[in-house]
Amino acid sequence: RIRLHLLGRPEAWLRESDGSWRRLHWPLRRALEVLAYLASSPERRAAKEELVAELWSAASEAVVKRNFHPTLSHLRRGLRDAGEAPPLQLAEGVYALNPEIGWWIDVEELERLSAEGRSLADQSRDEEAAAAWEAAWRLYRGPFLAGSSEPWAAARREEHQRPYLAALRELGSAYERLGRPTEAVDAYRALLVEDPLHEQVHLALMRLYGRGRRDLVRRQYERLSARLREELSSEPLPETTAEYHRLMTERG
Fold first, then answer.
1. Which of 14, 86, 92, 173 has CA 20 to 30 A from 132's CA?
2. pTM of the predicted model, to two decimals?
């Protein structure tokens, strides 16, 4: 009944009885943050103490006492049309999203698709693996809770980006095995947008460009070198440099 998009700007959608989707709104920002926290937690649950420590980390005890329960009530009101079952459960001090509701959460789906692709690739089913990783790529709308500077969100951002980067890396490799170099380039370049210091991906691009575009090989190597100098005060690995020179001198 409910779709939660937590990658990029967070959004929540409720499926109406006629099959259409209605976007849910919470004027109180903290209510949506509680929902996002629970939806991205193991088993979609968290103790009250954990919610307070992470979402009200800078608040005094008096502020927490005044705001915690009204925030949860505000969240429940926003989900009141999700069905007869209460969308938010509380048992022994632990809050959880009710599994009876039927939740679709993009961070969970991204992880599932990335793992599914890996399993299919291990069975040499590269076409199907590529399809799973392509779906993961389409699903990604940006970093987890984009725009949020909350410490807990920043801590989870890398965790939820990891399956996306893995999917793109594996997708590029699958495209190469399938003889689709142009699509492999696109996947690798998309990965570098999120992780511009991934040296092995720069190297994979150089090898693809080395099939006839030495100018692009040079540009990619120079881009990698500049990034490493600016951000890490280092140079490419010796094996990367050696491969670069081989590609630049190899006869077509």
1. 14
2. 0.87
Q: What is the pLDDT of residues 53-82, one digit of tens each?
A: 999 988 888 999 999 999 999 898 888 876
Q: Which two tokens stand for residue 247?
A: 């590609």
Beta strand 88-91 pairing with 94-97? antiparallel
**What is the C-alpha separation between 208 and 179, in angstroms, rounded?**
11
**Residue 45 is inside which H or E element, if any?**
strand 45-47
Alpha-carbon Rg for the chain in angstroms: 23
Q: How far is CA 176 from CA 16, 40, 218, 242, in A?
A: 43, 33, 21, 22
* Residues 162-208: tens digit of each pLDDT: 999 999 999 999 999 999 999 999 999 999 999 999 999 999 999 99
Residue with tokens 């389409």: 138
DSSP string, 178-207: TT-HHHHHHHHHHHHHH-TT-HHHHHHHHH
In angstroms, the CA 68 to CA 81 distance is 22
Do the Cβ atoms of 85 and 67 come closer than 8 Å?
no
Q: Is 51 in contact with 90 (CB distance < 8 Å)?
A: no
Please, which residues bridge with residue 95 across strands?
A: 46, 90
pLDDT tens track for 206-249? 999 998 899 999 999 999 999 999 999 999 999 999 999 999 98
Q: Do 95 and 38 touch, CB atoms closer than 8 A?
A: yes
